[in-house]
Amino acid sequence: MDLRDNQILVGELLDHPAAHAVFQRRFGKLLQHPMVPAARSLTLQQLIGFAQLYLPKAVIQDTLQELRRL
């Protein structure tokens, strides 16, 4: 999948069934968080910036690799 240098919108990823499945498998219940609808307008790069505060770098990199392989 073309992540457009991480400038793709989170909403686009969540609307893509295979990408949504990656997020669902890796982050499960986090997708039900009340802030997810607001995050749809963020770029993937912005989401990565927030995620780095809470997730190990390896988890983020593995997720990005999986998304790129779609």
In short:
The protein is mainly α.
Largest sheet: none
Judging from the principal axes of the Cα atoms, what is the shape? Answer: globular
Number of strands: 0
Order of helices and strands: HHHHH
Which structural category fits the helices and strands? mainly alpha
Please report the distance between the alpha carbons of the first and last residues: 5 Å
Domain tally: 1
Give the rounded overall mean pLDDT.
97
Strand portion, in percent? Answer: under 5%
Continuous helix count = 5
Q: Detail the poorly predicted runs.
A: none
List descriptors:
single chain; 70 residues; mainly alpha; globular
Describe the structure.
This protein is mostly helical and 70 residues long. The protein has one domain. Helices cover 60% and strands 0% of the residues. The protein has five helices and no strands. It has helices at residues 10-15, 17-27, 36-39, 44-51, 57-69. The termini are close together. The model has no long low-confidence stretch (mean pLDDT 97).
Q: What's the layout of helices and strands?
A:
Layout: H1 10-15, H2 17-27, H3 36-39, H4 44-51, H5 57-69
